[in-house]
Amino acid sequence: MIVKGHPAHPGTGEIVAEAILEAITAGGIDPGVFALIQGNTHDLGAALVTHPTVRAVGFTGSLGAGRALFDLCAARPEPIPFFGELGSINPVFLLPNALAARGAEIARGWAASLTMGAGQFCTNPGVVVAIDGPDADGFVARATEALTATGPQTTLTAGIGAAYARGRARIAGIAGVTTHVLGDNATRQAAPGFFEVDAATWFARPELADEVFGPAGLLVRVADADEMLRLARGLAGQLTCTLQMDAEDAGLAAALLPVLERKAGRILANGFPTGVEVADAMVHGGPYPASTNFGATSVGTLAIRRFLRPVCYQNLPVDLLPPDAR
Amino acid sequence: MIVKGHPAHPGTGEIVAEAILEAITAGGIDPGVFALIQGNTHDLGAALVTHPTVRAVGFTGSLGAGRALFDLCAARPEPIPFFGELGSINPVFLLPNALAARGAEIARGWAASLTMGAGQFCTNPGVVVAIDGPDADGFVARATEALTATGPQTTLTAGIGAAYARGRARIAGIAGVTTHVLGDNATRQAAPGFFEVDAATWFARPELADEVFGPAGLLVRVADADEMLRLARGLAGQLTCTLQMDAEDAGLAAALLPVLERKAGRILANGFPTGVEVADAMVHGGPYPASTNFGATSVGTLAIRRFLRPVCYQNLPVDLLPPDAR
After folding, report:
1. Residue B255 to residues B233, B250, B258, B259, Cα–Cα distance (Å)
2. Chain A residues within an 8 Å CB radius of B311
């Protein structure tokens, strides 16, 4: 296994690699099983994924960079699997009874999830969908309060900070977008952005569904449950979809569920998608572009399967079988 | 699910589709879950694999056709998995003690496997590897007898028959190839071919390792166990690798096994690879070009996983969970 360290934290990468090397040494394993390569050029990534001895690639990053590496993997003389995680807007559906009963609490929770870690999470809940009415107005007011109170945070790199500022400005500049919060962004900082569109604008401007990496949230105000379902049906692949629902919302939730199951790798109720537990049931993947392999997950115990290949032993003498199969 | 019927047997395809439709009707399932499309153009295949609602493709066929479809799947705006099975020469290793003890029997078994169904099996054992010596001579004599006695058989299509004749002539025409058997091929017929090369020729002419679809067999005569291991290390991905071995061959088998496990989806001892049982342990796949997805199998109960996508339900009310997860 070769890890290309993230160029934003070469020292951390080095410390982690040393810990891995210690475990390898302690376990009496050949140190050749692991290598850390540091660097920050496209050529390095391309050289790694096209090298004949590399047989599979795992990647987390932007749709553009990921697709370029995916294409290189697919074009090899011997194509290899590319397990890429390329972005997600992680929509949160505010079902009407939950919104009426707990709108303020949900707004605070959403703002906290949106701004956690300067919004630098692949599961950042960038889009919220609510049915028009006074409860939606209340949600906007509470979310605006919470996000206004949240100051700018330092991003991992100046590049992430700059890309966030550009992405936020792109959303704010689209006709039909209302801006509720737009904090000042100093260099390498990300301050929350909070925007709103109606469903007509959402459907007319597909670029509103592009991920903005950072604490930018967009509320889509739909007319009714049917329009919420229509929005769900139009979604691209997602890592997560979330329902905020009370018992009285079960009918609408049941209508949304068969749609969302086809859109996302993880469906949450009454939580927020940031925070990915490493557990047997965890799925961190989903239809493209959430991931490039719909059957895979990059978090959870199932993740190791991405790199396994089944072998059938037919009639082999027991002594020749792998110890576990004897 | 859409099946493109093989143009060589449209009537059989129709009968099978009718049986599936009957099962769908009896089960009260929406008939839209299954469709049969008949046709024989490249455009039809291309249209199917690039259609936006198609989300995964299974394919069995030639390396050329399969790679073209794989490339179309990978180049889509939303890339989809292509589970292709693109050819294999299924090498059989004749270990010295087995060859000495049972050479004649193995030769007859190999000839029967090679010519079964006019050699039209993806698991057809096209290459046999033996260590030089009188036992190898004996194998050649017995295999020649058995293959000479086997007449030409009708291939599925005239195209397959013609491609077989070309492939066989290609092998026969390579300098250093000895021809032992070369039966007459009438139109749409395939008569056995049996050829031999030494290891130097095998390593110098990589095209000897290209699949010839039909009853053409090639013996590679190696100098010793080390050269047999070297040949194994140089193999491309295979559906199967077979060891003909007796108890005294266990040392060489143990040396070959870690190499072959990295080359093939199925390792057999003292059998022949034609005949793929549908069983829990079956793997019909392997590294490229045996298959385009090393983690998948197209036969066996694991095959359905190719088309499944895991979904994590986090905190959903029990009533909303799929019945099996309640």
Report:
1. 11, 9, 7, 8
2. 261, 264-267, 283
> Quick one: which H or E segment has residue A241?
strand A238-244
The CA distance from B220 to B199, in Å, is 6
- Mean pLDDT, chain B, rounded, equals 96
Nearest CB to A267; choose among B237, B265, B314: B314
Beta strands in chain B, from DSSP E residues, in sequence order: 2-4, 35-37, 57-60, 82-85, 92-94, 127-131, 153-154, 178-182, 189-190, 193-198, 216-222, 238-244, 264-269, 312-314
- Measured between CB atoms, which of A270, A293, A305 is closest to B315? A270
In degrees and rounded to multiples of 5, residue B272 shows phi and psi of: -130, 145
Per-residue pLDDT at B165 exceeds 90: yes
Residues 244-263 of B with CB under 8 A from A: 245, 247, 250, 253-254, 257, 261
CA distance B287 to A67: 23
Q: Which of A250, A282, A316 sits opposite B319 (nearest CB)?
A: A250
Q: What is the pLDDT of residue B42?
A: 86
Pairing mode, strands A189-190 and B216-222: unpaired
- b/e sequence B281-296, b meaning 16+ C-beta within 10 Å: ebbbbbbbbbbbbbbb
Q: Report pLDDT digits (tens) over A195-237.
A: 999 999 999 999 999 999 999 999 999 999 999 999 999 999 9
Residue matched to tokens 């292709």: B84
Catalytic residue (one of B73, B122, B211, B227)? B122
Q: A97-131 in b/e burial notation, b at 16+ Cβ within 10 A?
A: bbbbebbeebbbbbbebbbbebbbbbbbbbbbbbb
Residue B197: per-residue pLDDT: 98
Cβ distance of B305 and A295 shorter than 8 Å? yes
- The domains found in chain B, sorted by start residue, are 2-86+281-307 (3.40.605.10), 92-269 (3.40.309.10)
Catalytic, A241? Answer no
- A99 contact B CB<8A: no
Q: What are the two backbone dihedrals, phi and then psi, of residue A278, each rounded to the nearest 5 degrees? A: -85, 100
- The complex's ipTM works out to 0.94
Task: Provide the token pair at B60.
Answer: 């069995």
